[in-house]
Design a protein that fits this description.
The structure is a single chain. This protein has 572 residues and is of the alpha/beta class. The chain contains 16 helices and 28 strands. The strands form 6 sheets. It has a 9-stranded mixed β-sheet with strand order 2-1-11-10-12-13-14-15-16. The protein has an 8-stranded mixed β-sheet with strand order 7-6-5-3-4-8-9-19, with helices on both faces. Helix 12 links the parallel strand 12 and strand 13.
């Protein structure tokens, strides 16, 4: 049976994964800090986890919630739940404390899989819920040996610790279970594991990172995952014959990474190289030493690639590099592509992608078109896109407007939010992405930014902050830029935050004056920034891996205004 035949059948996620990899039982399915599980061993672990869940979950209508990073147990547990027909839910440790009853009690959560490193962030809130069972997952998950490549700062974290005892002492009224003990329950059980699949049922609820709005639970069916894999195969994004080593650097409880980065490529037989603790500054070395053939990373990872000291030809094993999550500038794309050419990557360009959790989540990709640089390219197979004005009228080429998309991988809906689901889709089935985009005469799309990434000026005009960012990025001194609308007095004004390229560090006044000059040359009076700030780095949202721009709105010091040809410090 070939893959296209497999994807055409009505099967669960687990059953599809099993069929797709039936001939490759002895090949590695998961690699984690030097430890490996073959597809056969992985399937055995899935059954062990399934039996443990069956012992603890007599009511199959209940939910298992995950608050964990990229770990082997994440994949074992999710596939086990899928096999026996139990809904899984993923929510981040930054979101869970905001409304724990919504994520625990209102979702009928019976078991919480919790990373021990997240405990301090959520402990004060989960005690307010009705949760009874917590499985504590350590970073040492499944580790027998530690790879020589592991850095000295991470190595101590991979050894066994006493976190379970500490959590038991802090929450004596709850059933706190060590991951090893959970696995032992499954190993001791002799109950037969039978696959359960009902077409159209919710397989997983993935809560969005909340970086551009309130967190929403995106309901996904088995069929959506399988449609996404079918499209990947159709477009040759992953090579079934070479069976890529797929490096995962984005936490899997963010929808993009879980669907796009883990579950879907796994159908096609990739080895999932899991690395939940990493430094974006080590991105090039990770690609080199871990021999990754494909990876999905944020622009902040790629920004460090041109600064690497790898020798010429060092990335000849790299087949495809996906980038997504936030704005990719032409300057960054040019620098990265130049580096990839020097390092002899098989795909000598950064493949910029676009999408959202509600739609698969991939909808556009610039695969195989290096001259597009920062643009997201054409819709992927079977996806339709259009640009409309605020009244829903379809716009022509080279006219910016609101991006709407129709995808066969659309979500079932927002969990317990039917009105929000209805508002997200048009009457003819297109999704309102909330992004501003433009399409050229060749059908290539450029996603400019969020429609909400704007300021309404006193005269009623709208200023898009991403327009200012694109101008500031023209200066070669600018490594990263973020423009926010900061409340100053009774109105919002554009403020430019800049991270400098290393060779310009210490030249703050010079860079600010140049950036201001560029803005005067390319922007209207309304669009002119009020002030600038040079910073060492941007914080990132731990789940979306996007810049945490909201934190910039609470900063009051370190700004500089331009008066004539001089720079002066101000506080807002």
């Amino acid at each position: 049976m070939n893959l296209q035949e497999i994807f055409s059948k009505d099967n669960s996620i687990y059953e599809t994964w099993k069929l797709c990899n039936a001939d490759h039982a002895d090949l590695p399915a998961i690699e984690y800090f030097g430890n490996q599980w073959t597809f056969k061993e992985t399937d055995e672990m899935i059954d062990i986890y399934a039996r443990a869940f069956m012992s603890m979950l007599p009511d199959r209508t209940r939910t298992v919630t995950f608050c964990v990073p990229t770990l082997p147990s994440t994949l074992f547990a999710f596939y086990a739940l899928n096999k026996i027909g139990i809904r899984a839910q993923f929510v981040s440790h930054t979101i869970l404390p905001s409304d724990p009853k919504e994520y625990i009690d209102e979702t009928d959560t019976e078991i919480l899989f919790l990373f021990d490193g997240f405990f301090s962030a959520v402990a004060g809130e989960i005690v307010k819920t009705n949760i009874k069972n917590i499985v504590v997952v350590p970073l040492s998950d499944g580790i027998n040996t530690i790879s020589d490549y592991v850095t000295d700062d991470i190595r101590p974290l991979l050894h066994k610790n006493d976190s379970v005892q500490k959590i038991k002492a802090a929450l004596p009224h709850l059933n706190i279970i060590a991951l090893d003990d959970f696995v032992s329950v499954g190993k001791q059980s002799t109950e037969a594991v039978k696959s359960v699949y009902n077409k159209g049922d919710t397989a997983v609820v993935l809560y969005t990172g909340g970086s551009t709005g309130i967190p929403k639970g995106v309901e996904k069916t088995n069929e959506e995952f399988i449609d996404m894999a079918r499209i990947y195969l159709q477009a040759n994004y992953f090579d079934y014959k070479t069976r890529d080593r797929n490096l995962i650097l984005i936490p899997p409880n963010h929808p993009t990474s879980f669907v796009l980065g883990c579950v879907v490529p796994w159908f096609i037989g990739t080895t999932q190289v899991l690395q939940p603790i990493y430094s974006k500054d080590n991105f090039a070395n990770d690609l080199y030493y871990l021999k990754a053939q494909s990876t999905i990373a944020a622009p902040s990872h790629f920004a460090t690639l041109p600064l690497c000291n790898l020798p010429d030809g060092a990335l000849s094993h790299v087949r495809i590099l996906f980038c997504g999550g936030e704005l990719v500038t032409p300057e960054l794309a040019t620098a990265v592509n130049k580096t990839l050419k020097r390092l002899k990557s098989q795909s000598q360009h950064m493949v910029v992608g676009y999408g959202m959790a509600e739609l698969g989540p991939l909808t556009h990709l610039s695969y195989g078109v290096p001259e597009l640089l920062n643009r997201v390219g054409k819709p992927i197979p079977e996806v339709i896109a259009r640009i409309v004005d605020d009244n829903g009228n379809i716009l022509g080429d080279n006219t910016r407007g609101n991006l709407e998309i129709k995808s066969p991988c659309r979500m079932k809906g927002y969990f317990k939010q039917p009105e929000l689901t209805k508002a997200f889709f048009t009457e003819d089935g297109f999704a309102k992405t909330g992004d501003i985009a433009v399409r050229d005469e060749n059908g290539y799309y450029d996603v400019l930014g969020r429609a909400s990434d704007s300021i309404i000026m006193s005269d009623g005009s709208k200023v898009y902050l991403f327009d200012i960012e694109r101008v500031v990025y023209k200066d070669p001194a600018v490594l990263e830029c973020e423009v926010v609308g900061l409340e100053i007095g009774d109105k919002k004004e554009p403020i430019v935050h800049i991270v400098l390229n290393p060779e310009y560090i210490g030249k703050n006044d010079e860079v600010i004056l140049r950036a201001h000059k560029l803005c005067r040359e390319h922007l209207s009076v309304n669009e002119m920034p009020r002030a600038y700030k040079i910073r060492e780095a941007f914080g990132t949202n731990p789940i979306s891996t996007k810049r945490d721009y909201r934190s910039l709105l609470s900063e009051h010091d370190g700004y500089y205004e331009i008066t004539g040809d001089s720079v002066r410090a101000v506080r807002f």
